[in-house]
Amino acid sequence: MQDILSMLKQLHRPRLLVRAARLGAQEYNRDRHLKRLLRYHTLPRASSVLIQLIEAERILDDQRRSEDAGYSLPKHIDFLIAIMGEARLMSCSRSDASQE
């Protein structure tokens, strides 16, 4: 399986979407965001959540590209925020583990 961080590096989204998500990611709250987006009661590890978030975001991006009437820009930004937040948490935990 492809490394999750490599998958993230391959994502190419419009600059405005990325900018909005970066601003939102500064206020990312894992507990609040994941419970709302993925309907979790107990939160799993960042790596397993990231795979689910990437897949859900890919579906939203496909809707955006095909100009689907059901596409939701705020929902798309929320998923990008969660992806950025989880990626940050995952990379921090990896660097903490390598320092031990």
Could you explain the architecture of this structure?
With 100 residues, the protein is mainly α. It has helices at 4-9, 15-25, 30-38, 46-65, 73-99. The two termini are 26 Å apart. The model has no long low-confidence stretch (mean pLDDT 86).
Order of H and E elements:
HHHHH
The level of helicity is over 70%
- The average pLDDT is 86
Largest β-sheet summary: none
Mind telling me the C-alpha Rg?
Answer: 14 Å
SS-based class? mainly alpha
Task: Indicate the proportion of strand residues.
Answer: under 5%
Lay out the secondary structure.
Blueprint: H1 4-9, H2 15-25, H3 30-38, H4 46-65, H5 73-99
Helix pairs in contact: 2-5, 3-5, 4-5
What's this, in brief?
The chain is mostly helical and 100 residues long. It contains 5 helices and no strands.
